[in-house]
Amino acid sequence: METLELAKQIAQEALNTKAKDLKLLDLRDLVSYTDYFVLGTGTSDRHVKSIADRVHLKLKKEKSRLPISFEGYGSGQWVLLDYGDVVLHVFQAGQRKYYGLDAMWADAPEIPLDGVKPSTRAKAAPGRRGKAPTKAKAPRKRAAVRRKKPAAKKKKR
Fold first, then answer.
1. Model's pTM, two decimal places?
2. Residue 132 pLDDT grade (very low, low, confident, very high; cuts 50, 70, 90)
3. C-alpha atoms less than 13 angstroms from C-alpha of 79 in its C-beta half-sphere
4. Where along the chain do its domains lie?
5. In which band, very low, low, confident or very high, does the pLDDT at 148 lie, cut at 50, 70 and 90?
6. Is residue 98 predicted with pLDDT exceeding 60?
7. Which architecture characterizes domain 3-104 according to CATH?
8. Would strands 20-26 and 78-82 be described as parallel, antiparallel, or unpaired?
């Protein structure tokens, strides 16, 4: 598999999991340890982990590629998947700003993600494949119950 094609597939899978502010940086002329960085942002620790999970599982299933290493999965603040020639970084917004990889690699040309668009196909929830989503039932209103006033007791004289 060509390295740029791998990088674009990783970017596609990240977009399909709704990664924000996705960038594909070409590092071939700047460093020797990798060719491309894919940078993306998730909205929460679960979102960051789900982006990394989707990329990992898709490449494992379709391309029989496993990452050489991965880091940060436990906390979900910043997950790194290293595929050798392509490295995926998925951050939460605060971590992305703190580490500043966008500024650090400002000299790296950004590859336009032409043809890489989020999938429009809605995914069914796990365990509900092939079933149409159901509407949540509105809670039942209880019928108003009119209570009679207790009859006044007659006093004995």
1. 0.71
2. very low
3. 26
4. 3-104
5. low
6. yes
7. 2-Layer Sandwich (3.30)
8. unpaired
